[in-house]
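Input sequence (835 aa), recorded before submission:
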Amino acid sequence: MSPALKKILLGLLVFILVVGIVAAGFGVYTVRNSFPQVKGEIQIAGLDGPVDIYRDEFGIPHIFATTEHDLFFAQGYVHAQDRFWQMDFWRHIGSGRLSEMFGESQLETDRFLRTLGWARLAQEEVKTTDPETLKTLQDYAAGVNAYLGEHTGSDLSLEYAVLKLLNSGYQPEPWQPLHTTTWAKVMAWDLGGNMNREIQLAVLSKTFTQAQLDELFPPYPSDHPYIVPGFTLGSQPQNDWSVSQPIPDLIGLFQRVARQAALLDPVLGPRTAEIGSNNWVVSGDLTASGKPLLANDPHLGIQMPSIWYEVGLHCVNKGPDCPYDVTGFSFAGAPGVIIGHNDRIAWGLTNVGPDVQDLFIEKINPDNPNQYEVNGQWVDMQLVKETIQVAGGEPQELTVRYTRHGPIVSDTYADLEDFGQKAGGDIPENYAVALRWTALEVNHMFRAVIGFDRAQNWDEFREAARSFTVPSQNLVYADVDGNIGYQTPGNIPIRAQGDGRLPVPGWTDEYEWQGYIPFEELPNTFNPPQGYVATANNAVVDSSYPYFINYYWDYGFRAKRIVELIEVGAGSIDIPYMQSIQGDAKDLNAELLVPILLQIPLDDERLSDARAILQDWDYFNTLDSAPGALYNLFWKNLLVETLHDDLPEDYWPGGGTLAFEFFRQQVDQPDSYWWDNQGTPEVENRDQIFSRALDKAVDEIEGLQGKDPQRWNWGELHTATFENQTLGQSGVAPIEALFNRGPFQTPGSSSNVNNIGWDAVDGFNVNSLPSMRMVVDLGNLENSQTMHTTGQSGHAYHPHYIDMADYWRATQYHPMLWSRAQVESGADNYLRLVP
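Predicted structure, token format:
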């Protein structure tokens, strides 16, 4: 039976079964059977004493326990109640064991994941974790397993009822600390590195000169904000950051590595430097209350359920034996609160985006494919044997090869003998590509998380940040005493030479890492004179800083807008004003391009009439904006008309911050060669390309929304559909209908502060978004506000599965309940766990 026919029959079978179940009345039972108990009392072995769990109108639990063990035990229990399918899926990603759940279709993905070796590293991390953190991980795992001991199959989640049709023998294994530490590697992959950019530059260097590449990928603009301006360490000499030259003969191999990395996109979402995040903190000198306010909205790929799980963790009697009183956002599968506040401090995270990945080209011994050259000598690789279990199939064997730089990522699906190519010059006859990456070393992120949750002041917070080595995050800080601060943590490599922008030779020590920037010398500030710190993945420091962090930052358009709004509001900033910044949809790119478009002579009356709606536009991408709809279609077509003829299809621009800066540099050069469309006989200039892009935009919007500009609106084009990461992308419509929700009309756009992203190549559907929004009031913690994207529950059809989406898209919030009195008065449900 052909795979295509098998898929069709499987889809038909599932459809008949689903319809039959629903028609027989068992569908409702199956769906509701996995909903957790949130009222009454449950007896559970392993508790020291009773635990009180109050859930508010959005299903957010606040846990009150008398011991540290019970607190994290109960957190594991409620995570499993609401999100176990998500937890189970995530641990299979991190361990490279997706084939165990979904069969042969995930085999290639597992091969690449096993090559990266996250699970092996996680095992080492568990072995070297300090006893206190390890106990927290164990207490959490015990709570998850207590729930698994009471629930199996579809009692855990509806997804298991569907999975049974595909893999009848699958049974979730008990939770282990290993599964938590493995997930940290997944997040590091999602947020770290520049491997794809290295490959992109290597590929494009075959076609473009260095000067052209510098125009396509310009440096960070000096007129945009730096997070810690002027941060320097005195007279310490700078490294040589000259760009290493690419090796054109290996372009095909680099592209192959990129295709392997892209295998993770369906399960993690595509990695892009355009996603970004915002956080900022303002001191009491700038606020109406005289106390600091802290805001955070991390931008991540769209997914269902939300990546975040809100929770409050409260020791009934906070003290040395139970030192937690904290609320905020956690990951299902991990103890503690990642972003939030405790009784003394608040903190937020955005991605620094340092260059922490390098591709090394290794010379391979032609007589022994398991040896590689180091400084003129052949050295044995480390060989690791892996066995991949495949549901419905035979186990598959894999050998992972390690050099001193890390795993060889170019031979995931082939033997090294296949890599022979007579390249000439300094290129070896046999070669492979190894990945060096800070996340492929032992790290202890959850030591930092637990440290943040317990920290009572700036010094304790910074001490915890020492362990937040991967992925490197912009940490903003505020406390109830009125202090604010910022810290860059993370392992950021010091290179012997080169700036990490391109793959480099691995057979000498010429490009070796010399260690990491010492924590004491990483950028930081405490109570800065301007009274605020704002981060939006923009450059942390200027050229006065002696170490290299990254060359390609976010280009600072969101940061510029945030700083403008903070400075405008200085002295009267309050929570509603902070929320208005998070929802700000002003498009600084439109503010640049639209005035130029309005000045271009047009011979076509239809285009002139359509363009007229841009005349008085305020440049805000609101839901009902007609000019916003026309502009974004113009922007998409401007990218097509300007760059699609110059770039390979794999590297067509998505339309975010990099494209913003490219066009900002080019619009003042109306006869630049970039404007010329190489597919036409004439040589076009800027105004001709603008006119052509407008013509296509008007055609497109009239086809989508009619010829009456009064009916045009941005929200109808720019929609968010939340898809279940697994079965929601099955290709079987009835199954997808069970788990997916949407579309929801959304405002904002790529690289707006309200950074609800889309890709110009794929259309206006949302692919990334502010995954949560939080504003903390350090003057009165009970005033704090927050919201995330879908809902607390991972159970399809549960009341809290999608109840946050409408609030989220409208930039509305719910109270971030804090004190026990506030929690109890706001509770919809109360559950007591007893030994």
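Checked by second reader. Residues 1-6, 22-26, 413-425 have pLDDT under 50 and may be disordered.
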